[in-house]
Amino acid sequence: MTAKLHWQTEGQGSDLVLIHGWGMNGAVWQQLLPLLTPHYRVHAVDLPGYGHSRELSAESVEEMAHMLLENSPESAVWLGWSLGGLVATRAALLAPERVGKLVTVASSPRFAAQNTWRGIKPQVLDDFRRQLGEDFQQTVERFMALQAMGSPTSRQDIKQLKQAVLSRPQPAPSALEIGLKQLAEVDLREQLSEVSQPWLRLYGRLDGLVPVKVASELDELAPQSQRQVFASASHAPFISHPEEFVQALRSFTGHH
Questions:
Q1: pLDDT tens sequence across 122-172
Q2: 207: annotated active-site residue
Q3: Helix/strand/coil (H, E, C) string of 200-251?
Q4: Catalytic residue among 207, 225, 234, 240
């Protein structure tokens, strides 16, 4: 029997697919679920190599998108956080009939900085890759700290991220390695104008990984999309500001 992607499905309403970011797993949405399940039927996935999908592997964002499409509802709102935003965007481009609406959270079409493009310094990604080999637990923890940095509730945020992630099996080191490679290399900027479905982009103004400048760059690259910036959030607005986050999602999807 082949191992299958792990999905956690609960709630009533229209289908909502949630895709976590690098080093995490589907448990990151745990605190948000009670706010979502009255309005949506929520499908939270563990990406290949992560959590309960640890035995599976995917070589690229593209392959992840294909795997998710094989196992997801006929039509749904797809919400991707960080690296998950790249996966959701790829899925939206691959199967517009399946991804009815797209929501990207603290995500960028190109995470690595390049020339005047703002993003994560390639050096930082290289350091993470080097440290992975030595102590991947500590590397993931450093990444969590980076994600919460700047948020007024950063200590609680880190604690919540950590509890969630540790509640499921640790990611496969190979999946972490592939994920960092994708963050360093993937560039979807050219394709963004092809996203045809309604698209909401959510950002944290204090995000150190996806600089808020990216939000205004995307106003030009994807004029068909809309955006909202959470003024006092960092890289995980759904953890630091769950009520406002769900409010933004509900007004975008028409569940007022």
A1: 999 999 888 988 887 888 889 999 999 999 999 999 999 999 889 999 999
A2: yes
A3: EEEEECCCCCCCCHHHHHHHHHCCCCEEEEECCCCCCHHHHCHHHHHHHHHH
A4: 207
